[in-house]
Every structure is written in structure tokens, then in C-alpha cells.
Design a protein that fits this description.
With 121 residues, the protein is mostly helical. The protein has a domain of 82 residues. The protein is built from five helices and no strands. The longest helix is centred in the middle third of the chain and has 37 residues. The protein is elongated and about 60 Å long. The two termini are 28 Å apart. The model has no long low-confidence stretch (mean pLDDT 84).
Length: 121
């Protein structure tokens, strides 16, 4: 089995972390306006559909923000594994996680077989 390039993994994780932090900041900036300001941008009374649309949009943005938080936690945990020398080892079986899997999902914590078992319940 191929060996994981730890330094490349660290750079990839740090780059992804920076991207997620920036995206999260854009979401925070976008959702920081009041609902009234968001639906009445032109100074005219807004239609009920505009309010409903803005509510749905804001809910989606908050959900995306929650996902960003979870992703940051996963990336930070992967960076901690890089630092302590356990990066690339399956947390369930202890075997090496395939480099292709880590290339696709740098913060993976399980080998593909253990992840399959987990998803099957």
C-alpha cells in the first residue's frame, strides 16, 4: 500500500480550513442583516412571498454554517492527528487508511471498510 505524504496532507488540510473559514465568514456577514433590512432593501413594502423566501434562504444559510462548523471540527481533528502521528490510521481497526481515500477526504477517520460497516449499522 502507498504511503501518505503527511506534509502534503497538512497543506491540503490547512488550505481547506482557510477556505471553510472564509466561506463561513461570508455566511456570517450575509446573515447578520436584520430580516426587515433583507426583505425591504428598496424601501418599499415587501410582499409576503419575499419574507418567506428570505426566511428559507436564511435557514439554508444557517444550516450551511452549521455544516461548516462540523467540517472545521473534522479538519482540526485531522490536523491534531497529523501533529500526534496518528494521521492516516483508522480509528476503528487501526489499519492504514488508503491514500486515495485521504486524497478524496483528507479528514477521514476510518478506512473504507470500517466506514462501510458503520453506515450499514
Amino acid at each position: 500500500m502507498a504511503v501518505v505524504d503527511i506534509e502534503a496532507a497538512r497543506r491540503r488540510l490547512e488550505s481547506e480550513r482557510a477556505r471553510v473559514v472564509e466561506a463561513r465568514q461570508h455566511l456570517t456577514d450575509d446573515t447578520s442583516r436584520s430580516m426587515e433590512d433583507a426583505i425591504d432593501e428598496d424601501g418599499n413594502d415587501s410582499h409576503m412571498a419575499d419574507s418567506a423566501s428570505e426566511t428559507v434562504d436564511r435557514g439554508m444559510e444557517l444550516s450551511i454554517g452549521d455544516n461548516a462548523e462540523r467540517l472545521l471540527e473534522s479538519i482540526d481533528a485531522a490536523l491534531a492527528r497529523v501533529a500526534d502521528g496518528t494521521y492516516g490510521k483508522c480509528e476503528r481497526c487501526g489499519q492504514a487508511i488508503a491514500p486515495d481515500r485521504l486524497e478524496a477526504l483528507a479528514w477521514a477517520t476510518k478506512c473504507i471498510e470500517c466506514k462501510r460497516l458503520e453506515e450499514r449499522g
